[in-house]
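Here's what a typical entry looks like (ABC transporter permease):
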Amino acid sequence: MSDSTIPTSAGQAASGSALLLLLKARTFIALILVLLFFSVFAPNFLSAANLVIMSKHVALNAFLAIGMTFVIVSGGIDLSVGSIVGLCGMVAGWLVLHGINPGFGWSIQFNTFEICLIVVTVGVAIGALNGFLITKLNVAPFIATLGTLYIARGAAMLSSDGRTFPNLGGNPEYGSDTFRWIGTGNILGIPVSIWMLVIVGVAAAYIARRTPLGRYIYAVGGNEKAAGLSGVRVTRIKFFVYMFSGFCAALVGIIIASQLVAAHPATGDTFELNAIAAAVLGGTSMSGGRGRIGGTIIGAFVIGVLSDGLVMMGVSAFWQTVIKGIVIIAAVVIDQAQQRVEARAALQAQAVLGK
């Protein structure tokens, strides 16, 4: 009896392991498939010029998705990142064009580094506001970030009465003429925004996997009460993830304003949806406690390649939205399937050990 059941159990374990491996590699497989599809059906898809443009688009979504990954892993959600992008872009545009005018007949002008520092501070401050609402006032993350979404978007509109800040070339006299280089410059033939993404991505992955802070983020998302009882400062962890998400959104606002040499208050509209899609597609669980920065970046590439490829094929923007929705739903369904397979594999392992 035992001799016949052992091979069966071994076969089931082998098939379960193969299926689990496929599920874990789903994002990379999806990326390969969309690249192959569009390389065949979209003209000039793999041209050098298009790859550069596409990499810039991917970088924008990847920044937001990295910040979103930390938030979702901790058990939250951040709907405000798109509006933070718009507001931070407008702040950058205002500082480049006008500086700060205290109203005494003189103004304070800033160089590019100071402008970026101020803009990043604005993004982090909005993230801190989200953290305060969620941890101190016990507002649900969905509602808190929905509220700051409207606040940030309204503030962006008010800053210019809904108009664009054009011609952000900067002034050599104040050292702000290098602002456009952030979005249009290259280092060793690679766009500056890609180098920035590499730095942020590596730093985020290191934090997630190699530091106590990263372990605490996963612990809070896995079981907040247990994490608190074990000594994890849950409030500080939540403040950090929302502030980091705001930081990433501020970087995107700076990059877009620099690339366009203009700032518009509607910039970043619905960007939060693409960020959530990339994180979920990359294996981040919406229930918290599980996710990988590397998977999220690959997920951002899938979303970016999908968007640019559909545009090059002439697919309607309305159908593009439908397809993205299908991708998000499919990612969640596959994630749930992976959790079931992992649970089944754990039970089988326990059964084998018990024998």
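The first helix runs from residue 2 to 24.

More examples are in the samples folder.
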